[in-house]
Records
---
Amino acid sequence: MSSASKAETYRRYLLGDLNDEEKEEIEKDFFLDDECFGEMVGTEDDLIDAYLQQRLRPRDRQLFEQHFLAAEAGRLKLATTMVLAKAGAPSERKGGVTALAFAAALILVIINAGAWREIVVVKRQLQEFERRHAADVHTIDTLRKDLVKEMPRTASFALLPGLERTQGGGTLLLLPPDVDSLELWLTLRSNRFKQYSAALQSVEGRELWAERSLTSRSLEHRHAVVFQIPKQYLQPGTFVVELRASTPEGAAQIVDYFSLTLRRP
Amino acid sequence: MKATAFEKLLFALATDRGTAGDKYELIRLKLVSYFEWRHCPDAATLADQVFDRVAHRLEGGEQIRSSDIMTYFYGVAHNLLLEHWRSQQRLEKAIADRRSVESPVLAEREAELLKPKLDCLRKCLAELPADARSLVIRYHNDSGGGKAVNRSELARELGIPINALRIRVHRIKSQLRRCVEKCLSNAKPARNG
């Protein structure tokens, strides 16, 4: 095998683009041969560099995000390379990693972590970053601060229905600090209705906050109703969410209950 | 691992203790990389389990020729990987039965972890010995000539082949990631239920 085709095979391995038999063959090679192992880690370094410098072919880029970055180790390797590249850059305007690529990579890492989910806010932020930084290169540190500052402060959680309406029960949700709102994805047992309403209640049944005219959205192979709760109602404690549906006859019907316990770190 | 088992393991790798130590380190690096590339979350622990199993068999009297030792390690690692996947499947099924949808939480966690992750990386980078830090930074430096050229020059300067340089840097970055994981676990609040 030529060194170019070897590197391409290693690349495909790292991108998860080989079958099991091919993977095992490569693994045996690098266990037995230190040269192969060195080439493998070199290929990984090159792949991460190419991703950061936006040099990957579209399909490879997609595989990189869907496979390589799907593992925590892959995300950490990417972050490590970014920090090391920044540490070695002779000045803010030099170096192989542009600030825009860095911002895009960070955002893509976040998108990837929930790639199947619609993260409209983050996508909008990416467009905003592209617009703002198209002609200008900032330092990575500034971008990181910008990014963290502008990160949506909505905490999202998915809840399954049918939990007991009890004082001590409820899915434990640990709210990140400085969260502006809570987004609950109330998963449906069946998607029979067009419109729903949701109410946050104390365990005693007192209504604290409600949203009406909600519609269901797809969530993987299920459907869910997304219920937003503003910051002022996010006090530590146990709560119940009552989900109602509007029947075709115009009556309101209780669909399910969800219980949750909110805590702050 | 018992001290006697560890001694037997080192002796199986090489009769000279220094060489055996170097081999042990390289095998560990390969094992950790293997489990990471196969997306196992706790690659370092699995790597240690492979050593435990091999050492246990050696102590039990199993004879492994030194020429076959890497094939043997690979076989044990591969079996452990299959076992790990089977237990993961059981775990995932158990979780799916209780909470089938939790990815929005994961996405949020990732965003939450971004800042601490970068902070931990900087902290761990600062804690590296100066020569190791300088080496990984220079390896990732791209001061005009391109990284490939820089890396070749760096290897020449150190008097080692390029692959040896890559492995050396890979080892340092692996240590750095372990440090970050430790740093994050110390900083992380309790997980959601």
Note: Chain B has eight helices and no strands.
---
Amino acid sequence: MALKLNQPEFEIERDTDKCISCQVCVRQCSNDVHEYDSEQDVIYSDSIKCVGCHRCESLCPAGALKIKEVKSQFRTNYNWTAEHLRNIYKQADSGGVILTGMGCDKPYAVYWDRILFNASQVTNPPIDPLREPMEIKTFIGRKPDNPVFEITGDPCARGVKLKTELYPQLELSTPIMFSAMSYGSISLNACKSLAAAASEFGTYYNTGEGGLHKDLYKYSMNTIVQVASGRFGVDVDYLEKGSAVEIKIGQGAKPGIGGHLPGEKVTGDISDTRMIPEGTDAISPAPHHDIYSIEDLAQLIYALKEATDWSKPVGVKVSAVHNIAPIASGIVRAGADFVSIDGLRGGTGAAPQVIRDNVGIPIELAIASVDDRLREEGIRHRASIIAAGSIRSSADIVKAIALGADAVYIGTAALVAMGCHLCQKCYTGKCNWGIATQDPYLTRRLNPEIGTRRLLNLLKGWSLEIKEMLGGVGINAIESLKGNREHLRGVGLSEKELAILGIKHAGEAW
Amino acid sequence: MNIFKKNTKEYFSRFKIPSGCAIFGAINESGERFSGGMVMEGISVMHERSNGLGGGFAAYGIYPQFARDWVFHIFYDDIEAKKQAEREIALNFKVLLSEEIPTRKVSRITNPPLIYRYFLKLKENFNDQRRNEAGSDEISSQAAAGREENSIVNFVMRINRDICGAYIISSGKNMGIFKGVGFPEDIGWFFRLDEYKGYLWTSHGRFPTNSAGWWGGAHPFGLLDWSIVHNGEISSYGTNKRFVRSFGYECSLSTDTEVITYLLDFIVRKQKIDIEMVHLILAPPLWEEIERMTGDNRESLRALRILYGNALLNGPFSIIVGNGNYIYALNDRIKLRPLVAARKGEYLFVSSEEAAIRKVCPSPDRIWQPDGGEPVIGRIKEKEKNISKELDKRNSIKSGKYRKKSKKLPMPDSFTVYKNKIPGD
């Protein structure tokens, strides 16, 4: 046996008094951690294979399993942490790039957690959303510079006519959409759950770069189709099936690099959907090879608008990088109707860990500086801003909108709602929760109806919470929260951070 | 030295101070001018809605002899500020008349600033310094008709921002704003408003939540012909402020009234949206209602909300807007602040409380509580005719004697006559 320098990250505690040897854990674990010895009627566990997804623990009928993170198997060292050592051992073994899944898990400042929201006291009545109307309907799309209206009758009886033609808009019943996750990176059942939930709640999901499966055509009214550097599955029908088109330039987890779906995963359905031969690698290049500069992006935007008869908003998704404000400004000037910005902590199905954890900037700072820049240049109305990259709760949404976003994308949160436990092993294709896998044995673990219901519940719960927070601050329409940084205060932030976020420190009055 | 004096613009522009208020407005739609005494009496009834830290009036039609000229009312903290501001004015305007605004001594009014007014004509070679600054392209590239107004807006904003201790409180034509720290009826008496006659008046009594008082921080707030009095707190202030800022309006005072003024100026003057439609932007119907409508209306109201979502005024408010042509009153869309309106003949009154209207007009033809988001508009008929008439009169008298007492205009019978004393004094 070869020398193994690595040690387990998780410890599996099995309470043998409780264990009834039912073998649920054996069947559930796609990593083959548990093994049943029929002669002795015992289950052995090999903890080195455990990824910490908690599937066995959740399903153990006897409650006999506990998965614990092993804390100090290496000698404590704040510089050479266990993670560095493990990665070096792995790379010395394999000579490869360390892959990972989901978003950056490093302890960079999470600004959401250092921003506090306001509420009304005395001078202004809070509004109770259970008794009073509370509006969170949101529109995504370009707004005209100088709209012209005409009075056609008594304006008090609302006799008004718009003469300017309105640009196409996406109408969202809540400012939350499902982020781009391709069929291939997640299972069809997961895609179905997202699509059905978006459709039922009146919001949108994003196909990601993997094309659109035929089973999802019926949700086309709630679909944003993505055009990425690989152009997988893109043809005119695909564009027609979307309510909006999003050009993917980059993604928060891996700015500046492309994607790679290995050939063994490109099976029948996926090969059809992506429009590539079965068994070939699906490689998304790092750049679009027809976009080497901003004017090329403008051409693609207008080509897509032309192809869709100018009937759909066309947006651009970029990852939040250092120069994001001028980049976003350029994208708006290039004709995009919305700009999706994906922050440092945005998730992925697979990315080199070194990129995921070290490239990009937090979404909070990116939204603030982009909103500032677009307003300074007087072009904020020309495009909507969608914030993405680790929106963990309704409070994050409220803060994102108050910083200047129009709506948010949730990806990781949606997967968590469907059962994901953030083990970060999406790239292995062995997702025990049936989400990030194409193995039919595993994918059937996610029932799309249950997935849909759980997503709907999440949207409903978060929407109610958003309404409560709006009401508390005396606002009854979400438009009035947009860019309303007066209602935000920082705690424990430096002058510079406050200046970039454009907010005051807690304790400072208006 | 950069020390903030506690009663100056520099101090107050740093905070947003919520305040409760009394508001009152009256217009004679046929353009007949009536004494400010009536308005003082109306607002005085709502004495306990203010706390003596701010009161003010806006009056239209009070300078008929200068009806076509710009008139600035300016507060100065000191002579130095006055020198600087007058230098700027002389550079850009032809000064027809400048003088200290006449006042009375009133025991409860203390520490007034230097208060001057200037009747001005814009010079041809107006030095619009803002034109080259970033973000003001929008303003300076407007059509020629609006250019003079834009120049005035830029000038006023520049003086108010750059000259320490000078503050232009009103900058319209044939109108003026009179305000200060005190109860509104005292402020009216201080400024001798019972001696002025106008066809449209608005007034304001303030109950701010801070203790210090700055004269410029009282209301009405004015820009060009606009004057705004407002009761309430705009929770959407940050959104609205950022919205107007992208069109070149800098909110320097941190007050709700300021941002409402800029919104109106942008919507009505720049975007040329009829005042009758403005309520559909500032206090639009709920989505539920819009969804129930049909045809064009549904589409246009949807569009208005989509386009002007950031101009929606959220939070409790009632406002009275004055303009050379009309008075405009509006409540927030769920009516969280009081607003009452009444008509008597050519007169239209709007007020925070019915009592104030009943005091000056005990038996109106109609009195009603407008719904949330339902505007009350009173328009001047034949304004141009009235101006020409007054200007003819002016030509027939010696120039400069514009304050010559004109004959008292008859008031409707049912109006109580103002008795030339401060109520409660």
Note: The radius of gyration of chain A is 24 Å.
---
Amino acid sequence: MAMEDYRINKENGLEFGLYSLGDHMPNALTGKRVSAKERIDQIVAEAKLAEEAGLDFFSVGESHQKYFVGQAHAVILGAVAQATEKIKIGSSATIVSTSDPVRIYENFATLDLLSNGRAEIIGGRASRLGLFDLLGYNVNDYEELFEEKFELLLKINENHRVNWEGNFRAPLKDAEVLPRPLNDKLPIWRAVGGPAESAIKAGLQGVPMTITLLGGPLPIFKRSIDAYRQNLKIKSYNPSDFPVATTGFFYAADDTKTALRELYPYVDQGMKLANGTGYHKRLFANGADMNDVMLVGSPQQIIEKMIYQYEELGHQRYLAQIDFGGMPFEKVMKNIEIIGTKILPEVKKYTKGK
Amino acid sequence: MKVVAISGAVIGKKTLTAMKYVAEKMNKDFPEVEFDLIDLGEKDIQFSDGRNYTEYQGDTLEVTTKIMEADALIIGTPIFQASIPGSVKNIFDLLPEKALRDKVVSIVVTAGSAKHYLVAEMQLKPILSYMKAQVLPEIVFIEGQDLFRQEIINADINFRLDKLVEDTLIMVETFKELRKKQEDALF
């Protein structure tokens, strides 16, 4: 598959998207939490606003733990498909290890038809292990579950008739997985954590990658992306056929200090509720630096930083996380507005056709 | 302030004897401290399988959570075969990589031989540093001859354990101050 098969068009410049983990946390300042229904409605509304602001992509993640509401993320994406018309939609991420690839493909092919050819899958391995117990899988098979199922998912995408045998589901004999997506294939990305080790696997496999940056020094992540492209070459793939998407925390305000001050409580609480440890304040403060990947600051600073990252990483898509840790929806709306009116036009102007 | 002391031996009484003295000192002189002594010999702790600490159950979850919530840890460890025992290493393995950031950790060692003196310096301290702990430089090293029938019989050990408890608390206060200064300068 080449860049156009992944629905990436150079003429469109760097793609700008939003991703929600589908978290459902109390407001970090007030301690109050909206209902699960309200949170899901917010996510759909966020997608709609993103489309209206001219963004390229919107995705929702699958999580099966406390403080999350995206367990049935494909169902939420169905609602997003109905509420929007142009924006590309996807998962961030679909936990491939603990699902049947046939069912994943059926869901997302259907989503592709519902959305008129806008659906994508980002397949991940899960950063938490509770769902293995919940869904009846053995944590000891962590790595093999993902690799085997992800390979099958790719195979289903490539072939109308599938013959397959493996360890974690019944064999497929000349099986036809239906429906097919609108244009026969779906873009399927591999979700990759920060370290190079994980990016190398995506390169060896010959799949596009969505890499989690969140926050941290740019040169570290550049190494991972370089390693990804290098390993594509080792396997005789052409790196220019494979898009790279980066993801991270994003927050715009009038000035850097205000942005840091307003975002920090949500990121700190969000990390604490999701992983049991908060975000260290001094590391977070590095987010204001040009050499940290976090996009936190004034719109002008964010524009400069995005362009700098684009020059350094040569990625095709950036995904911003703006609704994490119980961030009030008004702030999410405000950020989408700033992206649409101030940031996106400048970033597009610079990156179009490159 | 929350302080958790761990008696890291699953067999034998020497480490527990030393840690019980630490608990007595803490409860007597610093009743305002929320203090907990965890005896690993009484806990059913599973081996780390790499999951997030919040996803364990039973004693494992109880112990990891208490440690994560503490401002300071006082780790009591025996030395077996010239090494910290697996029970103590497993506790570290159960926790996130930087679990001890902004925590003070102090060390009490019980050993059958003076030859084990450097084990904590060379094995335990590197682990604590990697996990970002603020480690109290002086450790209390206790030999078998310092104990008799679950009592400390060498007053020097009493003095040094008293100091360790006091210094641990002072360190927590001091590092709180340091951290405040660091963070106030940020945003």
Note: Chain B has five helices and eight strands.
---
Amino acid sequence: MAIPISYNVRNLKLRKGLTVMTALGIALTVTTAIFLMALLAGLQRAFVSSGNPNNVLVLRKGSEAELSGGFDAALFPTLKVLPGIAKDSHGEPMVSGEWVVVIVLPRKDGTGEVNVTVRGMMPDGLELRPSAKLIEGRWFQTGQREVVVSKSIRSRFSHANIGDTMEFGKGSWKVVGVFDAGGSAYESEIWCDVNQMSADFDRQGGFSSAYLRATDAIAADALKNRVSDDQRLKLEGVLETDYYAKQTSSGAPIKYIGIVVAIIMAIGSSFAAMNTMYAAVAYRGREIATLRVLGFSRPSILTSFVLESLLLALLGAAAGILLMLPFNGMQTGTSNAVTFSEVVFSLQITPQVALYAIVFALLMGFFGGLFPAWHAARQNILTALRG
Amino acid sequence: MTLGGFVVRNTFRNKRRSLLTMLSISFSLLLLTLMMSIWRTFYIDQGPPDSAKRLITRDRVSLAFFLPAYYRDKIRSVPGVVAVVPMTYFGNVYKDDRSTNSFAQVVTDPDEYPKVAADKIVPPDQLLAWQRDRTGALVDIELAKKFGWKIGDHLTLQSPYFPVHPEVTIRAIYTIDPPVRSLIFNTKYLEESVDWFKGQAGWYLIQVASPSDVATVSKAVDEMFRNAPQRTKTESQQAFQLSFVSSLGNVKAFILGICGAVVFAILLVSGNTMAMSIRARTREVAVLKTLGFTRQRVLSMFVGEAISLAVAGGILGVLGATLLIRWLTHSPVAIGVPAGMKVTIPTMLVSLLVAATVGFISGCLPAYNASRTNIVEGLRHIG
């Protein structure tokens, strides 16, 4: 027969101070773990949501990123007439030759300089990226030294408001609009006209990448293979979604540090929980013996104490999640390992993160409770009754 | 029995509780020491003595842009400059994409490189062999140990930035403390196989005569290229490395946040234990008081117990962190750990001081309550 769980709940309530302190200890560990997992989830979202499954990205063969690419602009007309490319609003193939460079901008808060990606694109570039919405001003005009900046660029750097001028390349650029890229990797970019930009960086006659919009996902796959297989082109086609998924590796430093920190803190918290549970068992020696006399078996005593420890951990997890919720959506940035530029992302406490946090806390509770519970179940009835 | 002896006896009365508390505190302090050491490595440590005399000149906009080769001689003409070498990052991939196999591969001018990197110790005959063989490579001793390389071994390199697979021969092995784990080969060899790379360099590594020249030289170099096609940014090697750390995000806030959480966690754990152990001794406190012990005496006994527990945990934690960091900096699997990271004596002392302070604070409240117990009630207490 099992001991009712209300017995454990009452016990936790009885020694409020001890329960609250132990649960808070677990909560702190959970908070740290949530923080790190939320960082990774946000980073993942930034990259995964960036790609459009119908977009094919064309790079120089052997190059892994837009920044390290670069091919002759003479190849562009060949790409334009490939079959399976969707039509843009003017009835032309929806393609965009682009140049990507990295520039250094000082942070608004004065904490140093950051690499930021500037993307020069053809007019179709905007149509290729419907997820980016203009929220203020207008898009840049072809042939003008104008840029549009993402929402997060505007908030993180000075001289990034509409009407301001930015200094890079060979002169100044006018900020004419602000766009919202919905948390994707584009959220960290500045966009402008490709011809203006390549002239500024002496890169005329070439593109670092080209974007092709396929009519559907199957056509995108075919288009990708067609580009890669054509020996004359010496180009490589990748699905935009795959390209960005690969960049999630930028989170590796956070991940490794996070795992080490979380494990060390979890071990510490497990010991603390163990201490509390041992104390609980010691206080209740006579009570446990009584339960045994009443006919509760050893396994049910063991289960009961493990359950109590799990309850304690659950309380800690709940407190930890509540403590972290206000930070949901907080923006931060890290260096993109592929483009060397900063990628901006926000903390995302997804249901999955919360679930992992709960499992993590339960593990701590389980290890913390197991030995004391074992100890409780093995107690000698007679000595315990007398004590 | 002295007061000290009494405290020690009491601390180890409930061995299991004391041990668990100590272990819990030690893991928290391990983390705290680790975080403080990372902080020290990034923001306080000045690096090896020679790096104070080294400057790096790079494109003002981004490291992704190369500088023209003729900048080298112009930089050389600046007063205070002793040597200048071109450096280019070739890549960090070796064999496969796994990060455990990754190490930095750079190209430079072997003839002048030893002047700039005098702290890399290379046997003279090996150095000569490296300078004579255009396809030769200079590697770190730790790296050679990890991959089992010997002088004369051939390696095929690959790069995400250059469309070539150069084959290099290990001609020299350098020793440096802390290890740098890099492979260096001839920039001419790369230029031969990559047309567009001819006459370019990723950045220039400059050696100046004395640390006091750093500021003037960096200003003079940047001023010289003010109206050149590519403007430059010259900074000390230390500042250059720090810019990589700052690109990882708000590292300072991150470390401080973890430290705060850890300190608070120790406070909870230690306070919890003290509350438990003092409550179990309510009757004893009453007896002590009956025997004539003053309140201050009782108070200091319990606070002393809390401090000694926390400090014992602290010592364990600091030792653990020292071992962990030593393992990390020498382990072949942990790539990317700054090689100069170590736990210094001041860091240890700060950790222990934190432990003692936390122990003191956590012991105060329960001990104060205990010292105030009414004797009669305390004697009646069943616990």
Note: The longest strand of chain A covers residues 95-106.
